[in-house]
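User: Predict structure, ligand L-rhamnitol.
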Amino acid sequence: MNTNKMYEIAKEIYAELGVDTDRAIAETAQIPVSIQCWQGDDVVGFENPDGVLTGGIQTTGNYPGKATTIDELKADFDFAASLIPGKKKVSIHAIYLDNQGQKVDRNEIEPKHFETWVDWAKKNGYGLDFNPTYFSHPLSADGFTLSNQNEDIRQFWVEHGKRSCKISEYFGRELGMVSCNNQWTPDGFKDIPVCKAEYRATLAKSYDEIFSQYTDPKYNLDSIESKVFGIGAESCTIGSGEFCLGCAIKHDKLVTLDTGHFHPTEVVSDKISSTLQFAKGILLHVSRPVRWDSDHVVILDDETKAIASEIVRGGFEDRVHIGLDYFDASINRIACWAIGARNMQKALLLAKLEPTAILKKFELDGDYTSRLAYLEELKTLPFAAVWDKYCETQNVPQRESWVAEVKKYEADVLAKR
Ligand code: RNT
Ligand code: ZN
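Assistant: Predicted complex:
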């Protein structure tokens, strides 16, 4: 197919609306998107070879060929990255440490346990993000970590949290690109609690302690992630939306907004411009909840597009850090990375191709008729030609051609595991 011929026509059509497609492509390519390492191995990690996922989250499916070593995960990720345009970061969880076969507990992790990840990121030009792992551990088995009423257990997790900030700071310093450190605790009650206030006060105290340790915001940006419910924590989560928003503002931290962590008709796209009136910034966990916080692969749905539009329209690219968070084990895991990340890129490119100035003028002039008419007509502009051109300039496969590459990798590599 002649990408350039199609692109030249599309370029003219967008230019009639004052949109410079070359510029849209160049700007989209500069927006970092953080891709979750945990899609590659069903959130198991390498702390413990028999690790079982707990914390009220669940990966369903048993598609063959998942990564079971750090080298396999890195190789799979590199291959996925060759299918995805744009600037990439990799989000690493504490349980993905490289412990060289020694037992290193969560309250003992240090930057050195992540050195091989840093070397790999440097070699491949990826940024890194970090996440303390407050789940899949005997001391989280009763459902409580930073809000645990047992002081020894709470202290164990506070130490883990503090160390996570230092590892994230190390990532940022080594790579010359700020690392976001996402604090998500699964703490919550299956059934109706009586001591909500006590548990929330304990969680607040733990964050006070974790953040009393200084890290350089040039290298590390802490963020706090809320949740409405988890499996086995259906009645109450300690780190609720209001708790985490308040806590982030109190400590001048980022707020993590995961698209699967709110009531079904609430949308994250509508929270961005509100949150940013008061909070320092946002870390997004773009996901796809299907009936529950199911973490399906991100598709190019209205909400993903709306999120990208809100970031671009608001000029929030510096304050909204885009991360993906989903884990599907029912289809090829590399395809999961490629599909979700390509869709995030499509949403960003679409947002960059919007003639926003024209739309804003309609709105401010009270011409809501033209606003709606244009918004609808924009949906059928020749976006596909610009997307193909973007993939070409980024040296990644166009359209569906990457699927055959994944099938080949599956036959050559995954099937032999
Ligand atoms: C869980 C949160 C959290 C995790 C990852 C693995 O509901 O979304 O972000 O998905 O940390
Ligand atoms: Zn999340």
